[in-house]
Amino acid sequence: MLSKNSDEWQIVHIPEKPPIPPNQQPTVNVFASFVEPKHANALIRRLNQIAPLENLRHVKRIQKRNVEGKTQLSVILCLALENEDHSNNLPLDVLELTNSYQLSPFITKVYKYAATSKEEWEEQCKFWPTSYHPPTYNIDGISGFADEDSHSIFEFMKLAIDMAKSGDGLVVNAALIVDPSGHQIIASGCDQVRSWHAPPDMISNGNSHFKQPASATFSPNVSNGHETIFFSRLKLGVCCLNPWQWSSQQLDIPSSCCWHPLRHAAIVAIESSAERDRHLFPTSSHSQEKSSQHMESSSACSPAKKQKTGLTSVENEKELDAQSGDASMRPYLCTGYDIYLVWEPCIMCAMALVHQRIRRIFYAFPNPNAGALGSVYRLHGEKSLNHHYAVFRVCISASVAP
């Protein structure tokens, strides 16, 4: 889905699977046959027992057409091999069924995969009827953005782009974690894979930004759209564009340069968000520590004393919570938050955002080398994950690109 705004800005939804032109969807061969309407129900019940369409659950078993004012029914008998063209190769049970009802099998094509859009579904039904189930999750933006929401997204992306620019012409990745319910910036961070003469206590500061020597910059091959124009005059230090580049450059720089390969912009922002929660809700963590201490001490007591100590622990925890009304308001990780990244994240950063329960990801530039959300992989489409976020690319105008 595409949302447009003046000044050439656009917001593009990145689907969980690469889009396939409706007329280029893969198909498979099946045996089918015309049937008498009075036999249809009995045939389908029997076919579901002896030849279930396990890998074609989106395909409807029966097709109904109106031919010259009469109803014509066709039913799928079973799958056919790719180069199969003779009904004698039907499974024995299916062959017996076709003989008993005097059917005349023929081979036709059906679409191999379920439709992911209404356009794909309409194209599939031209061959054979299929079912279409739109996404059940409801995340704002998948079907488009209102003008007010689009303006807010563009403003946050502009802030991220400004963060990505350093004073010496070096560009790094930058991240903003935002609470969309109040349009509030929760945390921010820039790439900190290396820092030049940085004291150790500064490395943990999620909002700090370190200038880097030219000899330690990355030079990934990027040549898409606005990137070609702007990257030609800037030095790139974007960690996600080449996550392993640090390993070959670490030996070529002075020992006074601090290295940490995991401190990409998204990771730094996540750490900053966690530090913010610890600062705003200190009694929440204190309550957990107290509860843990009581549990440990009770484990060494007799059963009767264990019960008493356990009740005391609960009472103390309630007292701590009562003293701080905000403790129950502490957010769970980054649930419900959005993150704005100048560059598409790598696999490591994208997976960290899954664990943080991020709701939506917005990025401005694709990552053709190691992009995890559209360019190379589509991690948000991995069904085995226990959390899924929506992904959008913000196509920015030439006037604000880094």
**Percent range of helical residues:** 25-40%
**Count of helix runs:** 11
SSE succession: EEEHEEHEHHEEEEHHEHEHHHEHEE
**What is the distance, rounded to the nearest whole angstrom, between the alpha carbons of the first and last residues?**
26 Å
Q: Using the alpha-carbon principal axes, give the shape.
A: elongated
**Number of separate strands:** 15
Provide a compact summary of the structure.
The chain is of the alpha+beta class and 402 residues long. It has eleven helices and 15 strands.
Notes on the protein architecture:
By secondary structure, this protein is of the alpha+beta class. Helices cover 31% and strands 20% of the residues. The chain has 11 helices and 15 strands. The strands form 4 sheets. A 7-stranded mixed β-sheet has the order 1-2-15-14-13-8-9, with helices on both faces. Helix 9 runs antiparallel to helix 10. It is elongated, with a radius of gyration of 29 Å. The protein starts with a strand and ends in a 7-residue tail after the last strand. The relative contact order is 0.13.
List the helices and strands and how they pair.
Elements (H helix, E strand, L loop, with lengths): L1 E3 L5 E5 L12 E9 L4 H11 L11 E6 L2 E10 L12 H9 L5 E6 L6 H7 L22 H18 L5 E2 L2 E6 L4 E7 L3 E3 L3 H4 L22 H6 L3 E2 L8 H5 L7 E3 L5 H16 L1 H17 L4 H21 L14 E6 L3 H9 L4 E6 L24 E6 L7
Helix pairs in contact: 8-11, 9-10
